[in-house]
Task: structure prediction
Amino acid sequence: GAGVSQSPSNKVTEKGKDVELRCDPISGHTALYWYRQSLGQGLEFLIYFQGNSAPDKSGLPSDRFSAERTGGSVSTLTIQRTQQEDSAVYLCASSRLGTGRNTEAFFGQGTRLTVV
Amino acid sequence: QKEVEQDPGPLSVPEGAIVSLNCTYSNSAFQYFMWYRQYSRKGPELLMYTYSSGNKEDGRFTAQVDKSSKYISLFIRDSQPSDSATYLCAVTPFSRAQKLVFGQGTRLTINP
Result:
C-alpha cells in the first residue's frame, strides 16, 4: 500500500502478558517514529529510528518498552509485562530525511491496545 | 507544566462559522509549528506547517505563529461539517518530522 501500515488494528491482552505491535513504513522512508496517544495525555513521542543510526529512545516510558527496526524497514514495538496504564493507541509514522516538504511525517492508523 | 498547552474542548460551532484554535508553548527552541487533523479512528494528517512568525494561508485555513508570545493559532473560515475532527498542534526544534511535541488536541464539531 501507499501509506504507513500498522498491525494489528486492535489488541486486547491480559495484564502481565507481552505484546508486539508492527509498523510497515512508506517505501523509501528512512525515518520511523512511534508515538502513544492516550486519554488525558495526548500524543507522546516514544522512539525514533533514523537510517542506520542508533535509535533515539528518549521517550520510552519504562524498560518494559522496546523497539526494533529490521533491515531499515519494518519496525516492532514490544511491551513486556503489560499494565493497565499501557492501554492507548500506538501510532507509527515515517518520513524521508532532508529539508522541505519531504520531511513530513505520515502516520498510520494506529494499534488500539487494551490491557484488561 | 506541559511543553505545549491546548484547550481540549470540545468545541461545537454552526456550519459557516469562523473557528479559532490555539496553542501555547514554553520552549523558545521550538522552530517548526504544525497543525494536524485527526478523524475518529484514524492517524493524524498534516494540515499546515510554518517556520516563521506571521500568517500562512491555505484555502480556508490560516496558521498564525507569534514567537514573541509563544502562541500559535489555526483559523478555519466557512467551516464545513467535514471539518469535524480533532485538531492537534505540534512543535519541534528539529526538522518538521522529528520528535514532534503535541498539544492535547481540540475536538471540533461543525453542526449543519
Summary: Residues 61 and 76 of chain B are 5 Å apart (CA to CA).
